[in-house]
């Protein structure tokens, strides 16, 4: 039996969670009788087996050849582990393994519960190897921790220390093509594992899409699988300086791998799409594809700067699609809520554009993965370095076609509610009158009733298929018990007329608010939902704050902004949850800038953007958010905007800035400052909810003014035409 056929024990290491997949891969390479441990597989095989793993394994981290075992006599707590490791190293003749002219490095792995300074212990292993050489041949090898010719892997255990030759040299996940990096990239072997688990090769898709491609790892690993490209074909290994290296055997395996790759290139490939919102990532992907040797296949790959919202019109069109991506989870989005919104938005786009197609999505927390709408989902937990990740696999559920609530609502049959007959009739009549309009205009959120009757002083708002009921606090002259009884009658009537149950109805009491109290948290229940308005999906909170995150009376002006924003730079002052900015962005605005004093509402704003596939997290942001007093912000900047929307509060005395704001008193100064930032042919929309408001004559004299109040009030607010007033303001034409 020659040396290449001799059976030897080998260790193959991998990231935690990959053991089962790696075993399947080794079995496909013809290796049997594999023992599985946490992070490591052990088998007895030939040198050819070991070389094939180095060449072909897409999942392994290292291939180790155990050389020497040092059994321990002392196992008590007072052991000097570093000196044990030295003794083990010097007791073996390392000149039998490699020459003193070779450089080497030591990688030390310590089993749990063993206490030792790993840096010092690693140094003692190196000392032992060097001293062994000096005793054997009188010469010593040099240390090279960056690019050693020989790497020794040492496992420090409780009863023995094992010294291995690392045949792989550097970790096998380093294929050699990643020349350009992006934030939080996934390791190449983990990407390959995900593609293997998703059965990419067996699925044979017509389209492969990575909508957040980063440095292009998934695209490149897909190409390597589909073109039968061995991951070890062009990289260096740790066995070249080993005395036992069989160069002819390795060159024959390399020639075989090159031939297989060339033959596979003759087969048709799917169309690949690599998108990212960050231009630097797009450049990195292109360069890494070239570095991987796939330059000739660039015509098969569409690499573009796109946000998720930009591929909203991308469809598989009857072809088999496979979507795989590593979203920018974690610190890059700031908090868990934004992360959840990202996954909700991604899921909605997948459902709309790729129903019944296969997908694999990475998440940092399993709760993020749980919002993905997959049929019969599977989850794989892996370690990307020291960070756990969760990969959700599945077939994308088709999107449920939803209609406005009033489209399916019909007048209900119910027993008469004594004392609430007039309210019942009025609410039912309002809903019947609004039904045709809501269905035609696709209005999902609207006001059904607004204190139409003096005895029932409530507002009833519909958000999707949920109701937000606000009780206007009764005056002190009204008996509280009587008011409570009447409100309970109203609630009974609301449930009867709408047909909605208690769990779909959210109740608040609305008193006149002073200062910033309107923004004070009312509850900690956090019942947040997604509703539709035009092309936008918006997060509303029906429990925590007096206002829900969506001012219904400004619906029409938001939709107007969406139509006018394409190609324009949009500024939103007192932006609240920035829904007007969101509509502008989805309408194709060149940029949006949102200014509000509240960090809470700006965080909410970013969630709305992320939910709709718009990016808010890279340096040259197209969509910007500023936590600032609007007066000060306007004063400090010089940027010009084509379209501006101002919807200030009636009064504010926030603790965050000195003084108070009164819309009647201060609107002249506010509008003048904003008009200084408006382009000569731009448009400013000004609106407010102060019922006694009058636009100052100074403003009317300085600018072209058109009151557009009637155009900005939807049918659901026509009964209360004083809900707000709005103006279109432009610079006078130069004569």
Automatic annotation (TrEMBL):
Subcellular location: Cytoplasm
CDD domains: AdoMet_MTases, THUMP_AdoMetMT
Keyword rRNA processing on entry: yes
Catalytic class of the enzyme: transferase
Pfam families on file: Methyltrans_SAM, RlmL_1st, THUMP, UPF0020
A GO cellular-component term linked to this record: cytoplasm
Domain of life: Bacteria
InterPro entries: 23SrRNA_methyltr_KL, DNA_methylase_N6_adenine_CS, RlmKL-like_Mtase, RlmKL-like_Mtase_CS, RlmL_1st, SAM-dep_methyl-trfase, SAM-dependent_MTases_sf, THUMP_dom
EC number(s) given by UniProt: 2.1.1.173, 2.1.1.264
Major location (coarse): cytoplasm
Record keywords, A-Z: Cytoplasm, Methyltransferase, RNA-binding, rRNA processing, S-adenosyl-L-methionine, Transferase
MF-aspect GO terms: 23S rRNA (guanine(2445)-N(2))-methyltransferase activity; RNA binding; rRNA (guanine-N7-)-methyltransferase activity
Gene3D superfamilies: 3.30.2130.30, RNA methyltransferase domain (HRMD) like, Vaccinia Virus protein VP39
Limits of the THUMP domain: 49-167
Keyword Metal-binding on entry: no
Catalytic activity: guanosine(2445) in 23S rRNA + S-adenosyl-L-methionine = N(2)-methylguanosine(2445) in 23S rRNA + S-adenosyl-L-homocysteine + H(+); guanosine(2069) in 23S rRNA + S-adenosyl-L-methionine = N(2)-methylguanosine(2069) in 23S rRNA + S-adenosyl-L-homocysteine + H(+)
NCBIfam families referenced in this protein's UniProt entry, alphabetically: PRK11783.1
Purpose of the protein: Specifically methylates the guanine in position 2445 (m2G2445) and the guanine in position 2069 (m7G2069) of 23S rRNA.
Family stated for the protein in its record: Belongs to the methyltransferase superfamily. RlmKL family.
Protein name: Ribosomal RNA large subunit methyltransferase K/L
Organism, as annotated: Acinetobacter suaedae
Taxonomic lineage from the root: Bacteria, Pseudomonadati, Pseudomonadota, Gammaproteobacteria, Moraxellales
